[in-house]
Amino acid sequence: MSVKDYNKTVTALVNTNDPKLNKQAGIDRLEEAGVDFSDGIESTEVLKVPRDKMKNVRAELRYYKIVVKTAPKTQGLFLYDALDYRIKTTRRFIDEDNVIEAGETLTDDSALIFRPYFEGIGLMKKDLLSDAIRAVALENKVHPIREALTRCHKAWDGRPRVDTLTIKYFHLKDNEYTRQTIRKTLVAAVARIFEPGIKWDYVYIIIGPQGCGKSSFIDILGMGYYSDSFSTLQGKEAYEQLIGVWLIEMAELSALKKTKDAETTKHFISKRSDYFRDPYAKSPTDHPRQCVFFATSNTGQVYDDSSGGRRYWPNEVGDDISVSEMATKIHKELPGEVELIWGEAMELYLKGEPLFLSPEIEAIARQTQNEHREIDDRTGVIREFLDTLLPEDWKDKELYEKRNFFCNDPMAPKGSVLRTKVCPLEIWCECYGKTKADFTPYMQRDLHNIMRQMEGWKASKSSLTFGKEYGSQRGYAREQTSARLTKTNSTTSKDISCENGLNGNHAQYKQPTNALN
Q1: Which domain holds residue 93?
Q2: Which of 89, 119, 142 is the last residue of a domain?
Q3: Residue 130, pLDDT score
Q4: Predicted confidence (pLDDT) per residue in 456-467, tens digit
């Protein structure tokens, strides 16, 4: 039945003086035209849709929905993808010279292609039509990864592969840390699909030479829902990067390193839901996360102190196989068993696999994390500054006297008092010899990040007082139980300090060759 005949049949029956006489004939004609009433709409409903004298459907959502659901060319056409929050087509749509392919996402442009067809059957209100299409699509939700994982589970042959996955393909050391970290990561990926927003704040890191297949490995595991385009933690773009993808690779953790604020980094990785507006939705809503993060790196030191090291699980590839052999094996063998791997991960998830390491392996993880952390060159200089014994009248000295003390002034008294508290501004002025006016927010964050990781020191829960020079500041207190002195007030330690920039007359803060950086 053509659009014209469909419209004519419906409106004629609606306007007839004897609807009972013609109702069954109209139903028969619509069913002969391919209109399927099995999706919850009674066959008589479409005949009762009220129309005006111009044959246009009354401007109410319920009537627009009925027409969208029963019109020959759009019946069963729209679905809602619960992974990427978009409306898509289930089959090809052709109207005169216009074509929309199956699986295509509904956009402003494709909406223009649909409109002439809908206007031809009496749906003239653009906004109401848009709402009707969305409402119909929401009644037909699908989740492609959920469906894929269900198929994988049915296909699983019962053989274990998950624990030894990275041992097989990257020749990692065969130990419980290696086995548990990949197992927890894959099970978390499954859990995020069936329980969006479930707590998961770890990043599995593959460390190995370029060309060994790190990215390909994650890509193949992603079964078409992988992305390596993650580039920022800031603004709307950060959330858009998460839409429609499952396994997200952060190459060299570049996006995290761009964000110097440790709290921003930790918060983003740990978030369980994101608040934004769906495409074509009118209001923003919460979107529980359905993705997990991976990272790859060519070097052993993969993250800095500001990134929150406990969230990273570094795994370094073995050196007993060539790069080309490793990559070849991944490309040849992994595609053939990826469904079986996810089938096992599904089984582990259904059996309640916990998404955290055992206490024993957590201790190993901390050691591994420390081995792969980037060490800030300034840490040693600041530690030297913190561990230098101070004169008893230190708090009464002027700033210039304090700076001279750290520059090996032969007239300076010997120190005997261990520093117990410090603030970044104090480090900036006394250790670096800089002025308070030059203490930018960027430099504040930098020094806070260094101090958060400084062994033997702990951030104070409340502000500390640092005398008339610095006032009340966010500071750090020495942990007395772990207090340590690497060097005291010796000539050697003072010489080292001045050579590394403790004197304000030395090189500027940002020079990379200087220990101030």
Answers
A1: 3-142
A2: 142
A3: 92
A4: 899 988 899 998
